[in-house]
Design goal:
Elements: H1 3-14, H2 19-37, H3 49-55, E1 59-61, E2 63-65, E3 67-90, E4 95-99, E5 107-108, E6 113-117, H4 120-177, H5 182-235, E7 238-240, E8 245-250, E9 257-258, E10 263-280, E11 292-296, E12 305-312, E13 322-330, E14 341-358, E15 363-365, E16 368-375, E17 378-383, E18 385-390, E19 393-398, E20 405-407, E21 420-422
Parallel strand pairs: 1-21
Antiparallel strand pairs: 2-20, 3-10, 3-14, 4-6, 4-9, 5-8, 6-7, 8-10, 10-13, 11-12, 11-14, 12-13, 14-19, 15-16, 16-17, 16-20, 18-19
Helix pairs in contact: 1-2, 4-5
Length: 427
């Protein structure tokens, strides 16, 4: 410290007035002295990479291998189950309902009686038609007998005419020789002409009898048709099931008068159901007739039913950008109900040897899906693209290969290049 500086400090000690000034000078002087006395510090160098890696903590993980599986590719949709056929049973002729031996939910067989109408009026009509048919047949018999008599008369008239003509020729020859008188000749001529007229009359009668027979035969045909119609009307009073099915609805009651074509019952066939649904346009080339369909319904939890695609719409609907399909679903024991909604999937193809990894080996961050591949005691971060899931495993479309091992635990502690140890139970 210089003499001048010492005197200034002394004065500061002596007088409090100059104390603040002296401290300011002292503070300003000390850093300057420090800079003069100490050498400048050298910039710090980063530690070698090997030292950083050695100092990095090791994370203990479980390992899982990429597994190859066969995958069934499906198209999912929701559809409605409909009966194979829905028949509205009606009557052909008017009448009064006599009895209905079936009701809602009854299973019926083909030909079973469903509704019986009062048959009395139909029976009366049949009796009348049969009586008319009998009269026509008797009239035909009489006409045939008359024709036989007329034809016999024609034969006799022809014989008489032939004889009269022979006699006429003979007498005309004798008259020319002067052997007979003119009266004899004229009598022979008259007899010949009378025989000719008689034959014509007999032939006309025979033709009339033939027309009578034709009319009688037409009358018989008409009477037979009337009998058939009356018989059908009588038969139609018993309304029978056209096919096996179940009664979905009864629309009339016994004692009710019904006009022709009145709906009486609704019959459905549910031994085979139709699943009708819509498929998005993007699957138009994948869905084909004959493909298998698996079906589940809320009414049958845990049960799966099988069917087959039987119809595919030829065009895509412009309003929905989808196309309709229909699948046939066997329902032999009636486990499925017509009208229910069903979730279904169509098996469009089967791929083999597709890579799968455990879902525990996948981590999603900021929209990216990643895995950590194990190799040489470290993990390598790799982005993957995933597909379908099954039994805790997920399909990998891109990013891993067969035989690679992945970290499947403590993924939140891993970064690219992280050193790891593998749990003994998973090696």
């Amino acid at each position: 410290m210089t003499d001048g500086m010492a005197s200034r400090v002394y004065r500061c000690r002596a007088t409090g007035a100059v104390l603040g000034c002296s401290l300011t000078l002292l503070v300003a002087w000390l850093p300057a002295c420090s800079r003069e006395d100490k050498p400048a510090a050298r910039p710090e160098q980063p530690p070698p990479a090997a030292q950083v890696e050695a100092s990095q903590p090791t994370v203990r993980v479980r390992a899982a291998r990429v597994e190859l599986r066969d995958v069934q590719r499906t198209v999912e949709f929701v559809g409605a189950l409909k009966p194979e056929d829905e028949l509205t049973i009606s009557n052909e002729s008017p009448g009064t309902v006599a009895r209905i031996p079936v009701d809602l939910g009854d299973r019926v067989t083909a030909g079973q009686l469903l509704v019986a109408l009062d048959p009395r009026e139909a029976q009366f009509s049949l009796d009348q038609a049969e009586a008319s048919l009998g009269a026509s047949r008797r009239a035909l018999g009489r006409a045939k007998a008359n024709l036989a008599a007329s034809e016999a008369n024609v034969v006799r008239a022809r014989a008489v005419l032939e004889n009269a003509r022979t006699n006429r020729r003979r007498l005309e020859a004798l008259f020319a020789d002067g052997a007979v008188s003119a009266n004899q000749r004229d009598s022979a001529v008259t007899d010949s002409e009378v025989a000719q007229a008689s034959l014509r009359s007999m032939e006309a009668q025979a033709e009339s009898d033939r027309e009578t027979i034709a009319a009688a035969e037409a009358s018989i045909a008409q009477a037979e048709a009337a009998v058939a119609v009356a018989g059908k009307r009588l038969q139609d009073t018993d309304i029978r099931a056209p096919a096996a099915g179940e009664v979905q609805k009864r629309l009339v009651s016994a004692g009710e008068s019904v006009k022709e074509r009145t709906p009486l019952l609704i019959l459905v066939r549910t031994q085979m159901l139709k699943l009708v649904g819509e498929i998005p346009e993007r699957f138009a080339t994948a869905v084909r007739v004959g493909q298998a369909v698996r079906i589940e319904t809320d009414a049958n939890p845990g049960d799966q039913f099988n069917g087959q695609v039987v119809r595919v719409a030829p065009a895509i609907a412009a309003e929905t950008r989808s196309f309709a399909i229909e699948a046939a679903v066997p329902n032999p024991v009636g486990a499925l109900k017509a009208g229910a909604f069903a979730k279904a999937e169509i098996l469009v193809r089967e791929d083999t040897r597709i890579p799968f990894i455990p879902e525990d080996a996948v981590v999603s961050i900021a929209g990216l899906t990643k895995v950590f591949v194990l190799a040489d005691g470290k993990v390598t971060e790799r982005t993957v693209r995933l597909g379908s899931r099954q039994d805790g495993m997920v399909e990998v479309l891109e990013g891993v290969k067969r035989g690679e091992r992945l970290a499947s635990s403590n993924l939140g502690q891993l970064t690219d290049g992280q050193r790891v140890t593998i749990a003994a139970s998973a090696k």
